[in-house]
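Q: Two folds, back to back.
A: First:
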Amino acid sequence: MLDPRKLLLLRELARRGTIAAVAEAVTFTPSAVSQQLSALEREAGVPLLERTGRTVTLTPAGHLLVEHAQTVLEQLERASAALAAVRGGPSGPLRIGAFPTATRALLPAALTALTAAHPGLEPMVSEIDPADVSAALRAGELDVALVHEYDFVPPVTDASIETEPLFSEPMYLTDRPSVADARDDSWIMNKPGTLCHTMAIRACQAAGFEPRVRHHIDDFDTILAFAAAGQGVALVPRLAASSPPPGVTLTRLPLSRRTLVAFRRGYGEHPAIRAAVAVLRPSAL
């Protein structure tokens, strides 16, 4: 019989591309990952990996098994959630990932409500960029996470992750009436590789220009402080724009950021996940 833990490693190899990356994600040594995958090949009875020097790729049989592995792992998540529901109310650790503005603006009140309603739960929060959430959920580092999507940035799909929408918020531009009017300004943006940075770049491109980025800063409070100091213009979401510093004017744009809650596919009916979603919705509206 195929071992689900080994199937998970095969799925991660298909996504991450190297045994070293899989090992880092699941906190194994590379040799341990290789041994587990070799054992999976013996269980399957067909070659799953093609090794050329240090490069490892999946064979057609390996790709086929990954497709079935996703179904198997999803059903196991559903079974785990169903058993947890039978045991009673949610309890134990609940590992929550969130992007910084949500951590500051939403989670304090949500955690207060969550622990009051379910004192047996132990929420544990980690700040994380939404671009890294899928990998952290698949690796079991998180149970649930808040992520966001922007206009101009298509959502990244992952067959192993489910999402539920929570709310949408408008975007604001500092000190200019429109993005086009900021063509000649310096810009303050989030770090490259983040969804926020990609959204800002594409918003400028949609207005017909390539922005001149002077500062890369991830904290929106700091971004607004830099804008107040005349260091450039920036796009900020409503959650970060509730109390702008003196001297900064904000113009609401026809752009939005949508916040969703994400979890492993099949795990959404776990009592702890439902409890978390229940307190996040009212605090987000």
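A: Second:
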Amino acid sequence: MNWNELATQLFPEGHAITESDNFLSGSARVAGADIAVLGTTGHAPIGVEIALAQARFVLHTVRAHPGRPILMMVDTQGQRLRHRDEMLGINSYMAHLGKCVDLARRSGHRIVGLVYDQALSGGFITSGMMADACYALPDATIRVMGLPAMARITKVPEERLTELAQSNPVFAPGPENYARMGGIEAIWDGDLAASLAAAFADAGATDMRSARGLERGGRKLTQPVVDAIVAGSHVLAP
């Protein structure tokens, strides 16, 4: 979906979002309150410039608008695969962005992510996956790694991975599978403005992804491992 069309549905009370080189930033009204909006469009590759622009916007919001909710609109093909970006340390730039988002959360900003088109690899990890909760539209494309690339790296035949993807959401792309794993809180199909308002009302700093994955049967061991670690830390505490 084109981001302009999406904004019309998300923000019937109005918005002031602008696009510059596939970087989205601005503000909007949701349920009578102002929110900050940032994101990407055009399947943007996340290079050092966009990573810094997003981090700068988040820090400005924390300084200038304490407590203002933040919406991250996601459409990215992942980190930009260029020698220049690698030599400049794109991993550090993306880590900086993630730290800025975490600072905003610790400073009292509710943060919601929305995958409205494409979300791949590291570009998704440092955007929607850093939010308090991430949502998706039904036609969104979500994956950390395509099966052909996964086959090359793991040395598992692609045919076997395709077979596994039929029953195991860890191997399968798409918003439905990420919802089963808890990475996506819900898929929005209906009144988007109402869904967004409800998402901000429900947003909290507690990470519920492991619990959701267990409840939905997509990740059955993560939450038990977390619980065991927490229980062990209590036993070992002086």
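Q: And?
A: The longest helix spans residues 48-64.
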